[in-house]
Amino acid sequence: MKITIENNEAKFLFRIADTSLILGQRLAELCSKGPFLEEDIALSNCSLDLFGRAEELYKIIASIEGNKFTPDDYVFRRNEREYYNIKLVEQPNEDFAWTMARQFMHDVWAKEVFTQLLSSKNQQLVGLSEKVLKEIEYSLIHSRDWLYRLGLGTEESNSRTQAAFDHLLKYVEEIFNFDELDKTYLTNVENIEKVWQDEINRVLSEINVERKEIQPLTMRDFRDGFHSEHIGHLLSIMQYLPRAYPEAKWS
Amino acid sequence: MVVIDIHKEHQEIWNYLSEVPDPEIPIINLVELGVIRNVEKQNESLIITITPTYTGCPAKKLFEDLIREKLIEKGFEDITINTVLSPAWNTDWLSEATKAKMMAEGISPPTDDNKVVICPKCKSENTKRLSQFGSTPCQSFHSCNDCLEPFNYFKCHR
User: Fold this and answer.
1) What whole-number distance in Å separates Cα of residue A144 and Cα of residue B25?
2) Do B60 and A51 touch (CB under 8 A)?
3) Contact B137 A48 (CB under 8 A)
4) Partners of residue A49 in chain B, C-beta under 8 Å
5) What is the ipTM score, two decimals?
6) Which of A48, A63, A75, A141 best tests the B interface by mutation, with the highest count of B CBs <10 A?
7) Mutating which of B62, B132, B141 best tests the A interface, going by the most A Cβ atoms within 10 A?
8) Which residues form the domain of A113?
9) Which domain CATH number covers A184?
10) What backbone torsions phi and psi does residue B117 show, to the nearest 5 degrees?
11) A59 lies in a domain?
12) A149 at the B interface (CB within 8 A)?
């Protein structure tokens, strides 16, 4: 059965759920490949938080939609154009500075989004938001700490951090092109951009990384399921097993 | 702080659930960890309400399996396990007795807002954090500056 989305709230929540999932998958790619053992564990822990967050959101989506789809159905049975994550989080790990810059940019966004969802009319969503805000705060400490260490570290770590922001900032503009759905389910969309810009600018100025005028990439909106080229590769790895062996079960 | 809302009439079931160890920190059980929020009995069917420690805790599914396994072993057949996220799990639900048990087993228990982390071996407060993330989502990794013991600290989460 093809997965369709009927309800506006579900459509909106897919954006947040898919963003959590795809970033979780990016971090999971680093499991056993972290720069050192403690960081490997840290990245895997953050990945688990993101997967858990996505899973709970998919459950809420299924209950809004009143269908029988499980989180696994949503994760493994949708194609690129049926994913609605922000393009920032599908960008590859490239190097550790990219990973941390991407994480920090995401965490600042996620914190404000879930803070606004505390006022949702959907009580399941309010309960989840209360819970995940604690986890986001912890992840934010981690990603922000790393940016200080990298930005204020050596010439090499600073230049890589600069390169990471120069690249990743190209993908940010679409996040703030809010549509009617965002405006319906979030309480103050303008504040999401304001909080985000202020915090990014504050941290960059403190870590000697320049916020350059970046020409955003002209790609169509993630809200319509448009992506950079990376999502297909990511999904093909993530979905391979359940698509090839639909009957496979953990035993 | 109310640790756990134990319904006296289901004491027997709570006792069974106390026999289920946390799969990742087996020295404490699921009741002590605070993940079991409610036990209800409707005729022959049992409804257990649980809450995860962290949304991404990999032991989440295992909690359910272990609870089911234990209750089946005790002769129950009709078991429903519901998960709730609110109120969010927090370490204030751990009793002093549970914290003492952790300490005795070498896991430093949570303290107020992580201000003081005590070495479980020599009880020194002169310790340092090696990593914000430990071997499970609920722990961070530390070492003692006095006796050099490396240890896990169960993070204060509230």
Assistant:
1) 30
2) no
3) yes
4) 54-56, 137
5) 0.83
6) A48
7) B132
8) 8-211+221-244
9) 1.20.1260.10
10) -115, 120
11) yes
12) no
Decide if A3 is inside a domain.
no
Give the CB-side neighbour count of residue A231, counting CA atoms within 13 A: 22
Q: Please give the residue of chain A at the shortest CA–CA distance from B134.
A: A41
B57/A138 Cβ within 8 A: no
B37-88 tens-digit pLDDT: 999 988 888 999 999 998 888 888 899 999 999 999 999 999 999 999 989 9
- Exposure b/e, B64-82, CB count within 10 A at least 16 = b: bebbbebbeeeebeebebe
Give the strand pairing for B36-42 and B107-108. unpaired
A128 touches chain B (CB under 8 A): yes
Residue A81 lies in a domain: yes
pLDDT in tens, A60-82: 999 999 988 999 999 999 999 99
CB pairs under 8 A between A and B: 70
Structure tokens at A37: 């053992």
Tell the CATH superfamily of the B8-89 domain: Fe-S cluster assembly (FSCA) (3.30.300.130)
